Amino acid sequence: MKKLKRVTIYDIAEKLNLNPSSVSRALNNGSNVSLSTRELILKTAEEMNYKVNSIAANLRTGHNQTIGVIVPRINQNFFANVIAGIEEVTYEKGYNLVICQSNESADREIKCVNTLANQHVSCIIISVSADFEDYAHLENIRKQGISLIQFDRVADELDTMKVVNDNEKVSMEAVCHMISEGYQRIALLEGPQNLSIFRQRKAGYLAALKKYKLPVIPELIMENAWTTELGAAATKHLLALAEPPDAIFASTSDFSALGVLEVADELGIQVPQQLGICGYSNESFTQITNPSITTIEQNSVLMGKTIAQLYFDELESGTSVAQNKLVNIQPELIIRNSTLKLSR
Amino acid sequence: MKKLKRVTIYDIAEKLNLNPSSVSRALNNGSNVSLSTRELILKTAEEMNYKVNSIAANLRTGHNQTIGVIVPRINQNFFANVIAGIEEVTYEKGYNLVICQSNESADREIKCVNTLANQHVSCIIISVSADFEDYAHLENIRKQGISLIQFDRVADELDTMKVVNDNEKVSMEAVCHMISEGYQRIALLEGPQNLSIFRQRKAGYLAALKKYKLPVIPELIMENAWTTELGAAATKHLLALAEPPDAIFASTSDFSALGVLEVADELGIQVPQQLGICGYSNESFTQITNPSITTIEQNSVLMGKTIAQLYFDELESGTSVAQNKLVNIQPELIIRNSTLKLSR
DNA sequence: TAATTCTAGGCAATCGATTGCTTTTTTTAA
DNA sequence: TTAAAAAAAGCAATCGATTGCCTAGAATTA
């Protein structure tokens, strides 16, 4: 059992025959302390290996320089990059990040939110989990005076700052690209429709079909195919149809697109000649598959930076001006070999 | 400007005409409170939307149920998986995780350590950054009564709990496998030798050569080739030698191995027939390259679980028994096509 | 019924840093 | 030389929860 007594400002004050308040002032802004005593205090603190107790300071001041981030999983490229972007900015400002994973579970998400709230973080940045019921826990955050920023997967109905990709526009662009390459029967692998990002991607797909006056064929739209395995299964089903698709837009993820590619390989179907494939997210593997996979870059690092900047803007403006602000980060279509029917 | 007053136990106490201490007891262990008042307090707390202020509680009790994790980057498979493993255990125990990235910078690592220490986390779990000078900051942690567990990249000279892979053994295994497949001139891409994991991998490589009485050829050992680009550059250099290698063990990472593969493709060199390749880490892309890449699975999730378990064991035993404990997690060689010279 | 033990609840100190206010000391101005 | 102003330092309350100790009343026992 360790019973280490840490050095406090009282210890320093006692040693120097000063008052703790002077020590505190010397350590912080340096106001109301003479230069000489200030230097003495700093030196002594260093010698005694003094470390501020942030907990005590936070209790007194009521705020701590910490931002909580909740994502479904940190080991997905997109989220890892957003976090990297957030961190770039927060690090500069001297803020700490607390990163939590909801593992796509609503229960866990609620727990994370509560923990962060109990710790009085200044801001919570969240991308909601796929499995959710309601947003009471998020509304609660605001009631406690904690800033809330949603990104990517956002709850539209909630009145918060939001940073999102223009999913619809880029999805439309992707499908238009496929159509102009000569694909006619384009299937869609769609994600859980309770998440708006997936609704938007579907809307983009539909808009592209409409623009080119192509029919919407219900049997070509497959639900919830967002892992490699599910993507593969959906593809098997699609290719077994009487009139199979000649292209698949895996709007859920690149993992799903990978499943499509694997099945095509297996069945000896030529990509992109007989089947076009477009994924989503620009996972690193999409450029090393054979053929490389056309996908969508979400500019995730930029998104992260934007999110963090938004918080500090609000903070520095001193007002909650930006409450219901929506920022769009433009994603980009990355055209690779898997959709180049014409040029082959 | 928000000036939200949060509900405290005093508010609850006042409302119910009770003493805050009773409220606290009711909310926690429930001792010394009658069942009826306890239920009343719980109900009222719920109604008033009371949330405990962990900061205040932590200040009083002197400990918080938080564990800090510092890794070079969270967006590397290995680290993300270790974190996932840690979280699985800590979540069960009701502990929180604070995740920080050092970005391979010593400065940043020190800042992370200090921040976590100031927040009085109960334990710091760290994999040190590649760029480092000394370990004063880590020694300091212990002086402050915070448990310290190192994993993967550890500072040998520091007296802490450590959880590592048996890098040497599995590296030897990998090189032996390549030799038995008929490769004779095996090159090594080595990592920064100030990190013991890379020294160990090199030792395994040397041990394998020795076992098979193969000569150690200095010009086949390349330093610091641990990104895709550096791996590619090193490969170009190696293949331009008068006597080029017939296999490359990219002991630094799979990314490096990917660079090797790309250069081989470019130069029209057949893998595995003319050149064998073995990477390290079992990144997901290694199974979808063409050919798939032989690599080493580090059992990272298991490692994470082990780390967390180690902490709780120490905690529950109540003693610092396990101080200088070393746990080895057995990695596995994953044989794929890139080294199968014989079977082709 | 009286003596004893339990229970429920109250009181107040504590954790360590911060900060408004007051007092003392120093400096400047008259 | 003295009065006024400014700087430096001290005092004490505060943030919110926890906890050792104390007491009044209830329950138990003799």
CATH names the topology of the largest domain in chain A as: Rossmann fold
Q: Count of helices of chain A?
A: 12
Biggest chain pair contact, residues each?
A: A-B, 50 and 51 residues
Strand content of chain A: 5-15%
The CATH superfamily of the largest domain in chain A is Response regulator
On the 0 to 100 scale, the average pLDDT of chain A is: 91
Domain HTH lacI-type (chains A, B): 7-61
GO molecular function, one term (chains A, B): transcription cis-regulatory region binding
InterPro entries (chains A, B): HTH_LacI, LacI/GalR-like_sensor, Lambda_DNA-bd_dom_sf, Peripla_BP_I
Keywords (chains A, B): DNA-binding, Transcription, Transcription regulation
Characterization of the model:
2 copies of one chain form a homodimer. Chain A has 3 domains: 9-52, Orthogonal Bundle (434 Repressor (Amino-terminal Domain)), CATH 1.10.260; 62-165 and 300-330, Response regulator (Rossmann fold, 3-Layer(aba) Sandwich); 167-298 and 333-339, 3-Layer(aba) Sandwich (Rossmann fold). In chain A, helix 9 (196-211) links the parallel strand 6 (186-189) and strand 7. Chain A has helices spanning 9-16, 20-27, 35-47, 54-61, 77-92, 106-118, 136-143, 167-180, 196-211, 228-239, 254-266, 300-317; strands at 66-71, 96-101, 123-126, 147-151, 161-165, 186-189, 221-222, 247-250, 276-278, 295-297, 326-329, 332-334. In chain A, the strands form 3 sheets. Chain A has a 6-stranded parallel beta sheet with strand order 2-1-3-4-5-11, sandwiched between helices. In chain A, helix 1 (9-16) crosses helix 2, helix 2 crosses helix 3 (35-47) and helix 10 crosses helix 11. Chain A contains 12 helices and 12 strands. The longest helix of chain A has 18 residues, at 300-317. With 344 residues, chain A is an alpha/beta fold. Chains A and B meet through helix 4, helix 5, strand 2 and helix 6 of A and helix 4, helix 5, strand 2 and helix 6 of B. The structure holds a DNA duplex (30 and 30 nucleotides).
